[in-house]
Amino acid sequence: MITKGKNKAAVWAILAILVPCFVMAPGVIAEDRKVSSKTFLSSATYSAGSAAYSSGFLVSAYNEGQLLVNVTAESGTSTLDIVIQTSDDNSTYYDHTTCAQITATGQYRFAVTNFGKYVRVEYTVGGTSFVFGVVGVFKN
Fold first, then answer.
1. Fewer Cβ in 10 A, N or C end of the chain?
2. How many CB atoms lie within 10 A of CB 68?
3. What is the mean pLDDT of the chain?
4. Looking at the DSSP assignment, which residues form a beta bridge with residue 69?
5. CA 21 to chain centre
6. 128 to each of 34, 43, 57, 103, how far by Cα in Å?
7. pLDDT digits (tens, 9 = 90+) for 50-62
8. pTM here?
9. Phi and psi at residue 15, to the nearest 5°
10. Phi, psi of 8 (to 5 degrees)
């Protein structure tokens, strides 16, 4: 006959073995993460001029992201300025992060957090032109 004290001890012994298996099971936490990729600007030639903007994207389900800028060609001596902007209504935007100025071909990554409900990219090309694209990758 098993007494209540021994049952309780047996249950705790079993839990001590099983709980770490569930808590540390590979992929359990990763499956709960959401990741979304947004193309802010398709790869194309962008010429010098005044500031222009991408479309805004709803990103309120995410809490961190990366802006990936792929510059494949540069004409003359040009500069590319990118500002990440945020909005609560996808209408009025505010500057969030000013990225380091880009002056050459290459791949550039800018981390962004605490960005609000909507995000878009403002870009300004100085000089002649750049061929580039901008993708954002967001996760919760």
1. N
2. 16
3. 86
4. 108, 134
5. 31
6. 39, 17, 29, 11
7. 999 999 999 999 9
8. 0.75
9. -60, -40
10. -65, -45
> What angle (nearest 5°) sits at the alpha carbon of residue 116, between those of residues 110 and 121?
45
Using CB atoms within 10 A of its CB, is residue 111 exposed (0-12), middle (13-18) or buried (19+)?
exposed
Query: Residue 34 corresponds to which amino acid?
Result: K
Q: Are 117 and 28 in contact (CB under 8 A)?
A: no
- Report which residue type is found at 43: S
